[in-house]
Amino acid sequence: GYQPCDPQIICNRVNHVQTCLEELEELAAKRRKELEDSRQLWTFFQEMEEAEAWIREKEKILAAKSCGRDLSSVLTLTTKHKTMLGELGNRRALLHQTMKKGEKILAKKTFGSVGIQEKMREVCLRWKKLEEITGLHQQRLEDALNFFQFSAETDDLVAWLQDIYRVVSSDDFGHDDHSSRALLRKHRAVVDEVEKQRGAVLALRRQLALLAPGHRQGVDIQIRVVEVEQLYGEVAEVAVLRTQWLQDALAVYRMFSEVHACEVWVDEKEQWLEKMEVPEELDEVEVVQHRFESLDQEMNSVMGRILDVNQVVQQLVDGGHPSSEEVRSCQDHLNSRYGR
């Protein structure tokens, strides 16, 4: 009783299955697309959340507003801030990519655009605020760095001036002509160094004016600048005095040396005159006469040296030299020896 199936029924069944398979494939593709769109959407929101979390973290760091207590801490904070600027650049690039993803999602119009647009607007505003805060913090660090560098340079200048003041106020003027000359050479080198620092001292006011108002208006830093100027003035004044004192000491030792030379000459001539006997022979008389003529010339020369000594003594006495009494005594002794 076998009856073959109508071929049309088989064709209909095959067509039906084919149609169902195509419908299933369409549903699968649609489902895949919806899932992919959903994945992109939640990936977008996840990346935005990560960006917001990163922004909140940096906002907390910047909210501390710490700019350091000294030059070392400011340099450390500046280094950390530079690192954060690098991170900010990397995060800016990532946020830009995320924003492009959001724009693509909005272009598809698959999901509601209100939530996406609101999130993008919110994050953009927070990012803009973060960049503003970062810029302000960087400016504060730069201001603090300039201030502490200025303070450090001022402290170094004060320390140098204090050391130089001890040098130029020394009461060592040498013990003879040679040592006084050596001290005078060294002192002139010190005076040159002091003069070279004049520009640095004069520049303090200009450098102070370039500092941020909150730093340059501080009473302590203004007092510090005034102290440096006053200290430099004292150093320069004492340096001039020491130059004069060394020159006076050198003049004294030269005077003593000149007096000694004159007295040696007087001693020699006195001894010669005391031992000299009147010769009996004419030839010997002529020799003695010739020596007296030479003595007369030497006396004129020595007289010139003694006049120079007296002039130096008068200058030292008029200048109030501390050894005026000793110098005057030496002068009187020499004049008495020479018969002036």
Automatic annotation (TrEMBL):
<protein>
    <submittedName>
        <fullName>SPTN4 protein</fullName>
    </submittedName>
</protein>
<dbReference type="Pfam" id="PF00435">
    <property type="entry name" value="Spectrin"/>
</dbReference>
<dbReference type="InterPro" id="IPR002017">
    <property type="entry name" value="Spectrin_repeat"/>
</dbReference>
<dbReference type="GO" id="GO:0003779">
    <property type="term" value="F:actin binding"/>
</dbReference>
<feature type="compositionally biased region" description="Basic and acidic residues">
    <location>
        <begin position="323"/>
        <end position="340"/>
    </location>
</feature>
<dbReference type="InterPro" id="IPR018159">
    <property type="entry name" value="Spectrin/alpha-actinin"/>
</dbReference>
<feature type="region of interest" description="Disordered">
    <location>
        <begin position="320"/>
        <end position="340"/>
    </location>
</feature>
<keyword id="KW-0677">Repeat</keyword>
<keyword id="KW-0009">Actin-binding</keyword>
